[in-house]
Amino acid sequence: MKLAYWMYAGPAHIGTLRVASSFKNVHAIMHAPLGDDYFNVMRSMLERERDFTAASASIVDRHVLAHGSQERVVDNILRKDKEERPDLIILTPTCTSSILQEDLQNFVYRASIISDSNVIFADVDHYQVNEIQAADRTLEQVVRYYLDRLDRCYRQEKLDQFLTNAPSVNIIGIFTLGFHNQHDCRELRRLLRDLDIEINQIIPEGGSVEDLKNLPKAWFNLIPYREVGLMTAMYLNKEYGMPYISTAPMGAVDMAEWIRQIQKNVNTLTLSSSIKRVDYEHYIDGQTRFVSQAAWFSRSIDCQNLTGKETVVFGDATHAASITKILAREMGIRVSCSGTYCKHDAEWFKEQIQGFCDEILITDDHAEVGDMIAQMEPSAIFGTQMERHIGKRLDIPCGVISAPVHIQNFPLGYRPFLGYEGTNQIADLVYNSFALGMEDHLLDIFGGHDTKEVITKSLSTDTGLIWNPESRLELSKIPRFVREKVKINTEKLARQKGIETITVEVMYAAKEAFNS
Amino acid sequence: MSVKVYETLTVECETGNYHTFCPISCVSWLYQKIEDSFFLVVGTKTCGYFLQNALGVMIFAEPRYAMAELEEGDISAQLNDYEGLKRLCIRIKKDRDPSVIIWIGTCTTEIIKMDLEGMAPKLEWEIGIPILVARANGLDYAFTQGEDTVLAAMAHRCPEPELFVRERKLTIENYFAFHSIKKHELGEYANSPSLVLFGSLPSNVASQLNLELKRQSIKVSGWLPAQRYTDLPSLGDGVYVCGVNPFLSRTATTLIRRKKCELIGAPFPIGPDGTRAWIEKICPVFGVETQGLEEREERIWKSLKDYLDLVRGKSVFFMGDNLLEVSLARFLIRCGMIVHEIGIPYMDKRYQAAELLLLQDTCIKMCVPIPRIVEKPDNSNQIQRIRELQPDLAITGMAHANPLEARGISTKWSVEFTFAQIHGFANARDVLELVTRPLRRQKNLEDLGRTTLVIKKTSLKCPIL
């Protein structure tokens, strides 16, 4: 038992529902008590989804506790089958069904005999895995379910003739309620079109389960986010020998690396065919220099001013690692601490950011993250919504770089994090966070926005205080937006001390007095 | 599916496959109402995830509630529940020093049969803070019923009325027995039994209702819950109680059966008609004749004219998720709207008797058929009915709001009625403000066209709308 106010990753069934509702025409039925269908609200509100979320509940109530679900689950599956005619129904266990230990697998078996839809039972345990791991598993499970039905002879030996003629890829792991996933997907499409690579399939978002059997036609797989899709890629690699690229194409350096990996994969597979080998170096150079502004930004005076500034990074493994590398390697910003809540992937994370940050924090306790930030006092934070709020409390600006997120992280405008456009977006995010911090700092130096002690204008003008010429000149040099504040503060001090003529010294004394 | 019209009041029951909030959400408004409380939700990540997302920004404001998150060891009883809860409660005491800790039991504690009621008194004695137990779980209850379970638990902690008050009353009566006028004057105050109102309302709404009764020279002696746990009202034999919300049937039962209070069955003070009827039910109990109520109601209706013009003749469909539906429907019918269906999670016909009667009267008065009341509705069926009826407004949960809007059906998010101030004469405008908002928005965007923003699917694959 532990005291918890907030969690970074949700319960397992959320992951399964995210995968199910990303596919076209797949319906998820939760075995859950009333009120556990909160996922529908999130999808409808955060994603502003226009369609009804294809997730419903087979309600667990007192009767189920007493007599078991009996026919209820099967009836609910059959009803959905009739009403919506989905291709696939996924029966989703929740924390409640984990304890009830009903034989849900058996219900699925019984329902699948009668229904026209395929029916599977999501193999996730509430107490073993979290949202992210469950999503990864469920995606693999669905893919495996459809591919295992293929005739064995398609496999391995006939793989070559099975491949598409032109180089093609699957993008695995774009899905609903993912952090900027829709924009990232669009950016990846554009990139691949530039590279003359066809997209065989994008799963699960918008994909059809009936098409999954064609997944092995692609030459290789792209896994943009480590959290979801890796299991599927590994399965396809093992069963069909499909290579995969799990580098996240985030930041200019990793982008180049990602494209080179694609090049390598394409060229390996073209060896035997008549298609000519590809060379993307020229493309990388052009994009990095001119399409992405990030490389230029790193050289500009703006970014120079950020040199050595301290930051803290926290988020999911993919985003936290990539952003850490971008800050340290591409912008020369010092990352005092970098961390992730993906405890299950801690080893990979540590390896990735080795040498790019001073400290590593692996935790899913937001209080620990808060304490760490308070202790480090960075100039800016890059984290989740939780870190944004920690930042608010500590007066440190924060850029949101990872889930969990709020509705403002589902922008209508085009905001990818991946690809060359993504580098621009990240540069903006980083620069804006710091610039805001600097402005705040300047305000502080000159007395701040704090107007708790109100002194009316008439007071400051009618006090008979005399500003000598030097101090008047000094006052005019102060930026306009804080000038009045400085004037008021100085006069306040003068009155307190019974000074009649204000000199530059008095001004500085006031600055000192009101800073502490 | 045919749409039936009823002449008499009937309640049908559907499958119970509907969307609502989990009753643990009651902590969000109760922790704010009861200032010295701390709510500990004993449940799993699922409960925590719901609270975190449903309550949004409140999470970050150092709320006085937390999850006692059960892990695998707790479920398989490898760990000692009592020791676990003790550890957490001691920490809460140290960090926050509340006057009361309220344990919210969840589905999980029900299923594993964690004996919260048994552990609470023991731990209470050990750490010296009152511990209440409320089983606000999704197995038994919906949304606002969570508050009902908490208040029912709290009723047990209300002190008995102090005996000497009655004795003193007696002596005073004896003393002035010879002086009839003085006795009458005293009678107004001393002889009247005390009145306790139950239901959690924002403090300014509570004082508005207090004032409303004071105008009729009725004194409200206390509220359940009070602003602080330490100020709970005295309850006992001879104390009159009256509910302000339709979802408090367990609390009402507890007050009648366990605390021996007298329940005043009344419609709920929602809308000017409801508020007037509510006061009219209370006054006779204390032998008071109402004064100027009719004019006051009339004045309120007049002040609502601009909104009434907007809603008159428009139709509403309540999908049902917070138990306020009957009272709101009754008010809206009185406003001239046509209600197609009143979906409601649970219908206590005894506790809501007066409200149902007022609904029936209102329908007769307004010459409209009594809408069907659907208990434990089935959202999927309801959406079919909405498609057929094409109501001007669907009052629904957030899960359905955006999809319905995309299909050209205006919606109002039902949860807002739970958080908005809707009680009493003064807040009638707020209810209509909420109800008319989608209608006004629609008017503003009228010329834009494109009210349907979904891709029409011609295939049979998606029969919904």
Morphology call of chain A: globular
User: What count of domains describes the coordinates of chain B?
Assistant: 3
* CATH A-level architecture of the largest domain in chain B: 3-Layer(aba) Sandwich
Tell me the distance between the termini of chain A.
Answer: 43 Å
Point out poorly predicted stretches of chain B: 164-190, 458-465
Low-confidence regions of chain A: 454-461
CATH class of the largest domain in chain B: Alpha Beta
Q: What distance separates the N and C termini of chain B?
A: 14 Å
**Computed structural class of chain B:** alpha/beta
The share of residues in extended strands of chain B comes to 5-15%
- Secondary-structure-based class of chain A equals alpha/beta
Mean pLDDT of chain A: 88
CATH superfamily of the largest domain in chain B: Nitrogenase molybdenum iron protein domain
CATH topology of the largest domain in chain B: Rossmann fold
Instruction: Please compute the radius of gyration of chain B using only Cα atoms.
Output: 24 Å
CATH C-level class of the largest domain in chain A is Alpha Beta
Whole-number radius of gyration of chain A? 29 Å
Give the overall shape of chain B.
globular
| Number of self-contained structural domains of chain A | 4
Keyphrases for this structure?
heterodimer; A: about 525 residues; alpha/beta; Rossmann fold; 5-stranded parallel β-sheet; globular; B: about 475 residues; 4-stranded parallel β-sheet; 14 strands; Light-independent protochlorophyllide reductase subunit N (chain B); oxidoreductase activity, acting on iron-sulfur proteins as donors (chain B); iron-sulfur (chain B); metal ion binding (chain B); LIPOR_BchN/ChlN (chain B)
Give an overview in words.
The complex is a heterodimer of chains A (516) and B (465). Chain A has 4 domains: 12-129, Nitrogenase molybdenum iron protein domain (Rossmann fold); 168-289, 3-Layer(aba) Sandwich (Rossmann fold); 295-446, 3-Layer(aba) Sandwich (Rossmann fold), CATH 3.40.50; 466-515, Helicase, Ruva Protein, domain 3. Chain A has 23 helices and 16 strands. With 516 residues, chain A is an alpha/beta fold. Chain A has a 5-stranded parallel sheet with strand order 12-11-10-13-14, with helices on both faces. In chain A, strands 3-2-4-5 form a 4-stranded parallel sheet, sandwiched between helices. In chain A, strands 7-6-8-9 form a 4-stranded parallel sheet, with helices on both faces. Chain A is globular, with a radius of gyration of 29 Å. In chain A, helix 1 (12-22) packs across helix 7 (131-147), helix 4 (72-84) packs parallel to helix 6 (104-114) and helix 15 packs parallel to helix 16 (346-353). In chain A, strand 8, helix 10 (230-240) and strand 9 form a beta-alpha-beta unit. Helices cover 50% and strands 14% of the residues of chain A. Chain A starts with a strand and ends with a helix. Chain B is α/β, with parallel strands linked by helices and 465 residues long. Chain B folds into 3 domains: 23-137, Rossmann fold; 194-286, Nitrogenase molybdenum iron protein domain (Rossmann fold, 3-Layer(aba) Sandwich), CATH 3.40.50; 293-448, Rossmann fold. Chain B is 46% helix and 14% strand. Chain B has 20 helices and 14 strands. Chain B has a 6-stranded parallel sheet, with helices on both faces. In chain B, helix 2 (45-54) links the parallel strand 2 and strand 3. In chain B, helix 12 (271-285) packs across helix 15 and helix 15 runs parallel beside helix 16. The longest helix of chain B is centred in the C-terminal third of the chain and has 17 residues, at 428-444. Chain B is globular, with a radius of gyration of 24 Å. Chains A and B meet through strand 1, helix 2, strand 3, helix 4 and helix 5 of A and helix 2, strand 3, helix 3, helix 4 and helix 5 of B. Chain A: Pfam families: Oxidored_nitro, PCP_red. Chain A: Keywords: 4Fe-4S, ATP-binding, Chlorophyll biosynthesis, Chloroplast, Iron, Iron-sulfur, Metal-binding, Nucleotide-binding, Oxidoreductase, Photosynthesis, Plastid. Chain A: Its cofactor is [4Fe-4S] cluster. Chain A: One of its GO terms (biological process) is light-independent chlorophyll biosynthetic process. Chain A: [4Fe-4S] cluster binds at residue 36.
